[in-house]
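Appendix B, Record 12. Input sequence as logged:
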Amino acid sequence: MHTNIDVQPIRTGEKPQFPEGDFLLSLGKRVRELRNRRGMTRKMLAHEADVSERHLAQIEVGEGNVSVVLLRRITAALNVSLADLFTSESEDQNGRVIQRFLDRLPANRREEFVQRVMRELGHESKIRRGRIALIGLKGAGKSTLGARLGEKSKASFVELDSEIEKEAGMPLSEIFSFYGQSGYHSIEKRALKRVLDLYPQLILSVGGGIVSEKETYDYLTINCYTIWIKAKPEEHMVRVIAQGDVRAIAGRDQAMEDLRQILHAREPLYQQADLCIDTSGSSVDESFSKLKAAWDANLE
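Logged structural output:
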């Protein structure tokens, strides 16, 4: 069977037309997504990649004429490969099919299905059930709730940020200045593995950006029961300011916009957690009751 295809020949001296504008827009959007997911401002990424902030801004809105060398510097600063830069989230078809299937299930059936799959795969071990990892953005209540659960359950409570500082021998701010974003995440991975080797039973609070590092996040979800401590962006901001972080006060409107973009970029990754506890509009006691119930159910 033959199919007639209308092929228009290219005339001599005529160049084929490619949708370069669409490509540059797509590339810029992907750079912006990856930057937001890692919690980096445009200024931070420009400094890390050694490119001008103005040039980076042009790339993100699809107006940049990007060289391969510049792309390599940007991907190194984002700690991703060139292939990751050209792969959109929509191309992860298997993950999206599974997610659509789960979304159609009622909440009780969804939890039952996930638990059954995890048991079949061997991940629902006694060790995994004895470890809870709290994920989410700063200000959600991870440290407050985690420390309280540790006291009540007599399990060790560990903040991964403190372990990262021990691993590097310096404060977090100095780690970023000295090693950069990619160096920080390498230290984060080593610290996580060391902590999980030390504690068979554990409540662990991790930094909000760990979900952006696929290998590290996969290791965490395989070895721990993960709970997303969720809150509205406005509540994150109020709590961060209450903790004495004056950086959130300066340029507050821009800080709020950055926070919303980071949360939006990371939300699909946070949703991969085993459970979500929304602390928005809830007291510490109310949020803790939900967390304690999850811990008790997980150990049954």
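The chain has three domains: 20-89, 92-121, 125-299.
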